[in-house]
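Why do we care about 3D structure at all? Because function follows from shape, and shape follows, mostly, from sequence. That is the central idea of this module. The next example makes it concrete: a single protein chain, its amino acid sequence, and then its structure expressed as tokens.
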Amino acid sequence: MLHFSRLKTTAILVTIAIGMLFAVPNVLSPGMLDHLPSWLASSRVTLGLDLQGGSHILLEVDGPALRKERTEQLRDEVRRVLRDQKIGYSNLALRDTSVTLRLRDPNDTQKAVIELRKLAAPVTNALFGNSSGEMDLTVSSGSDGTVTLQLTDAGLTAKMRSAVDQSIEIIRRRIDQLGTVEPNIQRQGLDRILVQVPGLQDPQRLKNLLGQTAKLSFRMVDQSMSPQQALEGRAPPESEVLKGQDGQPYLVEKQVRVSGEDLVDAQPGFDQNSREPIVSFRFNNNGAKRFAAVSQESVGRPFAIVLDNQVISAPVIREPILGGAGQISGAFTVQQANDLAILLRAGALPAPLKVVEERTVGPSLGADSIQAGKTAAYVAGGLVTVFMLAVYGLFGLFALIALAVHIILMFSLQSVLGATLTLPGIAGVVLTIGMAVDSNVVIFERMRDEAREGRSAISAIDKGFVNALGTILDANITSLATAVILFLMGGSGPVRGFAVTYILGLLTTMFTAYTLTRLMIAYWVKWRRPAKLPI
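And the structure:
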């Protein structure tokens, strides 16, 4: 156990050196980091919301809006199916979460029901990913030719779950493009999303960015009558009046000529002539073809750029736009243009999000927490140092050197993994200070037991490491299993932050407290050839 080959010794020392390399940026100022070579590791441990302050927002998916949109989609699908099958119908209507209609010929009832049931899809089990056996809608018919399509509770629940998952990914993309530190985004229950953004002290901008659905569409402006006439009288059935960003009403066709789903890029910029902020956009192949076709047949007509049922601008098509690219202008500020580009690049939310709770955590609370954590770490480290030196002497010094390396490696792993350090995480660091020397205590006590039985110093040292290995592995493996369960089932960010620190501490403890300490003692034995155990 005390023999180390040159290769093994080199591997241990190289591992420690690499760990120090990744840990060093955590003690350097941002200015010093900028002057480091590009090849040198520069990642740092991210401080959580409770340490550096930031914005905390709890969002809720708008359930009624999601159900309404799903029902409207079902209505459009029913129209398409019956039109394709050439089945006449009337009185197509929406009733909460159902669609009803009456067939002109009751003899078509069976055929219509068969075709409409093809719209139903199996509900996927959220836990296992397989079908639960339920369908997302049911189709029933009456003797008078009425047909009812009813969305099921299981289907609506699955739709809500899917909307939350999709919203989390879109929210993450939007926040990432703000250039802030790593956000904490997680599901809360069935329909809520918790968003914590450390370092962002402007919750209003975050709310504006997350609150917009960002559904972009390009529609033609209806010139058959003025918007004022449509408001005073009755708008054409295929058109609607939408308010513009400037407060002016626009009569816009309901038909979407090109959807924002066909956008592949959007970037803020400045108009070459007026120098006002704009947003340049680019379509994929499908969107470019549709945009070109619309612009070719509508030269001289205005078309509306609509974002979340608000007209951003309504320019006149002067000539066909064949390149699949264009720009949006609307008296934006620089920040508004940048935020709009972020929204368009990240994609549209599947449903509106409502702010349920919001708060801003100031950096002063974080500074107090960091100082309290440092004080606790200093006190714990001091007590451990005094105990190990007083009880185990030189071997206690070896254990303390391993403890220092353990802390360095733990922070280097957090830097590499991009982990967020929270106040519970600091508690985990303090806890691992005691745990890191616990393995050495077990080893040293085994050595004493062997020495009492009459073994020589070198034999007692070697046997102490051999006998302690099983105990150390059992203790750390059971602790690791508990930490993994805590991480998987903890749910909230602070709990999982503690679990991450705990897991990393256990892994580095196994390396430093057993391997590194054994390496130092092995070389000390080789150098001194002790006749008596120095503890």
